[in-house]
Amino acid sequence: MALPKAYRLKSRQDFQAVFREGIRRHSSHFTMRALKPVISQNPSLDTVLATALTPTKFGISISTKVSKRAVIRNKIKRQITAALHRLLPKIAPGWRIVLVVKPKTAESQCGSQKFLQELEQLLVKTEVLHGHS
Known about the structure:
It contains four helices and four strands. It has helices spanning 12-21, 45-53, 70-87, 112-125, and strands at residues 23-26, 30-35, 57-61, 96-101. It has a four-stranded mixed beta sheet with strand order 1-2-4-3, with helices on both faces. Helix 3 packs across helix 4 (112-125). The model has no long low-confidence stretch (mean pLDDT 86).
């Protein structure tokens, strides 16, 4: 099950902005790049509402270094997406996040439950989850 379109990071410019300006967090299977929502010095009510209503957008980057086989790369992406689906209600709005999958992920045969735990820890480190549990 794919992420809803509103939660997907699509354009090349968005990915480049996250890689250029985003903060980095690492775990054993992922590197997360996260770009905070921009709130100006003189925020008008419209700007604050627009940022609050913009959902957090995710991009998943998985190279052929992880696996030469597209079947394996797509399986890993589906597991990550399933984990993100469970976390969506807890995530603060307005962020842009890119998850880069590390090459050792394909070797470790871990499932979406392990991905869920790691993603939750990374999101807490970056203060993206509501309540920062």
